[in-house]
Task: inverse folding
């Protein structure tokens, strides 16, 4: 029996959640979901026992193919590579596109980039989506023993750098609003009080727009960069045309910067222990298209 449109759509949130975590790109995840629908029509086995398991297998394998081909492109990427942000909400329903989990924060998605494609798949399928080793082995065409070995390696790598996902969402959002106020007021003292001593800054312009070509670390360096950005905006006469809204992206506070109404950048804030620990600024226009569509209907 063919998979119906309604049945396929019922699994779309799960499939998107897997593909987005695997690829770090909402646009690519959407493409993978579309490809999986085509596969469901063209290559569905006649003795299909579990639609969910089969679709998960198809999506995972499509993601593996994309990850392997993307490695070379990532090596040539101009400046830091950051995941594509997605709009989320603290009130999001359990069946919505992304489940609330640390594994969808930008910091964690960046960490997943340190894993091989195979390690990433095994880790996510087991740790986030709770598939058994036998199920994972079938999906990835390996033995259950091999799946356990891959998971062990992945867990060890992730444990070394795993970011802590703590803090009250409302308190974080309030801090984001204070950050906006301090930045737009060009207040160095207020900004200094919000930034952690070892705060990091990563900018992703993809070589298409201006962005920091290397990561910055330390309060003074990040403070100087932020103030410099505002000085340039003032010198170019666009400061009056800039608007900033606090949104929820990847289940953390983020700033949506617009210039003359056009989305210019998303600044995702990593907040822990009452301070901003990291700022990830996505300016690459290709990576803003998906969240721009989300914002248009929010």
Result:
């Amino acid at each position: 029996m063919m998979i119906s449109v309604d049945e396929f759509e019922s699994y779309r949130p799960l499939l998107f959640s897997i593909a987005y975590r695997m690829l770090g790109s909402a646009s690519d995840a959407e493409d993978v979901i579309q490809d999986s629908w085509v596969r469901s029509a063209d290559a569905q086995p006649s003795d299909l026992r579990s639609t969910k398991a089969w679709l998960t297998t198809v999506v995972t394998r499509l993601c593996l193919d994309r990850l392997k081909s993307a490695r070379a492109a990532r090596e040539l990427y101009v400046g830091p590579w950051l995941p594509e942000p997605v709009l989320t909400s603290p009130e999001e329903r359990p069946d919505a596109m992304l489940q609330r989990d640390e594994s969808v924060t930008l910091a964690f998605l960046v960490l997943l980039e340190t894993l091989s494609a195979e390690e990433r798949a095994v880790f996510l399928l087991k740790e986030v989506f709770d598939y058994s080793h036998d199920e994972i082995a079938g999906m990835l065409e390996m033995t259950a023993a091999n799946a356990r070995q891959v998971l062990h390696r992945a867990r060890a790598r992730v444990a070394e750098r795993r970011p802590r996902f703590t803090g009250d969402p409302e308190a974080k959002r309030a801090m984001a609003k204070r950050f906006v106020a301090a930045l737009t007021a060009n207040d160095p003292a207020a900004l200094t009080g919000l930034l952690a001593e070892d705060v990091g800054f990563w900018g992703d312009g993809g070589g298409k727009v201006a962005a920091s070509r290397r990561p910055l670390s330390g309060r003074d360096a990040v403070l100087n960069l932020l103030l410099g950005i505002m000085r340039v905006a003032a010198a170019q006469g666009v400061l009056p045309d800039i608007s900033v809204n606090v949104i929820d992206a990847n289940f953390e506070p983020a700033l949506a910067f617009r210039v003359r109404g056009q989305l210019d950048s998303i600044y995702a804030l990593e907040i822990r222990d009452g301070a901003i620990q990291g700022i990830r600024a996505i300016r690459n226009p290709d990576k803003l298209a998906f969240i721009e569509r989300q914002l248009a209907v929010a």
Observations:
- The mean pLDDT is 90.
- The chain has two domains: 5-161, 169-297.
- The chain has eleven helices and six strands.
